[in-house]
Amino acid sequence: MKLPIFLDNHSTTPMDPRVLEAMLPYFVEKFGNAASRNHAFGWAAEEAVEEARKRIAKLIKADSKEIVFTSGATESDNLALKGVLEMYKEKGTHIITSSTEHRAVLDTAKSLEAKGLATVTYLPVDKYGMVNPQDVQNAITDKTILISVMLANNEIGTINPIAEIGKIAKAKGILFHCDATQGVGKIPVDVQAMGIDLMSFSAHKMYGPKGIGALYVRKRNPRVRIAPQMDGGGHERGMRSGTLPVPLIVGFGKACELCEQEMTTETARLTKMRDRLQTEIMAALEESYLNGHPTNRLPGNLNISFAYVEGESLLMGMKDIALSSGSACTSATLEPSYVLRALGVGTELAHSSIRFGLGRFNSDDEIDYTIKKVIEIVTKLREMSPLYEMAKEGVDLKSVQWAAH
Amino acid sequence: MAYSNKVVDHFNNPRNMGSFKKDEDGVGTGMVGAPECGDVMKLQIKVQNDTIVDAKFKTFGCGSAIASSSLATEWLKGKTIEEAQQIKNTDIVQELNLPPVKIHCSVLAEDAIKAALADYQKKTEEQTPSTK
Hints:
heterodimer, A: alpha/beta, Aspartate Aminotransferase, domain 1, Aspartate Aminotransferase, domain 2, seven-stranded mixed sheet, 13% strand, B: alpha+beta, Sufe protein. Chain: A, three-stranded antiparallel sheet, 5 helices, 3 strands, elongated
């Protein structure tokens, strides 16, 4: 086993060596511009791009013509929201989204709001972080043009009832965008069965390269149109101009192909490792709380709050394991995770949360090591914590008058 | 964010971590911060003849908060009450090389020192009722 261990696979994933191998010929040897229609260099590039497009479309049960390449999920989210609002502004300007979306959706919605281009409803989530389809239904007005709800949450891994929301959107003739960045390649995604009209996803979350993503844009029933946010050569059916990064696209295609082939076995393996991590840590440490849905969750996700210890100090005590925390001290804003807050997790427990993100290249040995380290550091920091001491003495921490600063 | 070597050292080897009994003679206790803010420091001093002979801390907070309070206990030992009053958060920032986002940790440590000193002074005044 090699240190440090990477257990932050929601932030990004290591590229699969098979993906790199597929990409290599497209840097030096087959360097053509896929838009060059009149020579062999261009044809070779175009062929590679179209082959990749097919593999990507296949993974999400779409048609290859419905894949629009972007630089990543953030751009896809921006293009979906801004593109739809601009294209259909005569029909309506109301967006429904949820309070636990990624900031690429939330901040885009806020920016549209600030510019006076949209009004936005931010739906609450239940204690597991799930959007209630009935809330979506109730929020719809005659001005609603777009519903945007994520497939799986990046912090807590909770999977939303996308097909139900898709059905509601369809019945009302409202477009449905889904940020599926954390879900594509990890769990089955079917844009038809889920009633999705637009969907964002990204290669580097599924063992592909960074810098390439896609927006799925439905072509039939209904034919979705979006106003381009990047003007230029009219690439990607006019929706996203810019020379296609052929090696990245080839890598994206290969990554999708591998995810499709290995999803069943990988899900079983990750779920087993994740469940063991969860069971052993939570059995050894009293007052540790699972954040997110107990079962309806991404296979590689585990998010736990450890009462009386602060998240950043936990990370600091496990320097040889790459993890992430909802603690304020790890964010630029000094506010603890808005996702955990939206679940109704108390601020103090939000400060105490750790996110484990397991992926394709994690081993059982690494999980053993992590279990041991987590138990060790939480125990050590609790010994150091005045809150733990008070709780042990029977003081009700909620009754204490804290000198907030 | 990279931590300075001194912060890492205090975090891995905290000095004077622990507690005195609050009602023990000569002990002053300061508790500052709030769990919702992500940091709570408890700092205690033990005073004999106006000199701090021992100090202890317990901290809930990030590595820099733990290091700031650990350093504070080191500095407090051997100082008179008068000298302890002079410890400034900026001294802690300098010693631990804290980045701007962690300055509040040093402020909290200074507050904890002041609170412990005030608690000690209040206790001694109560124990020796004024005859004047």
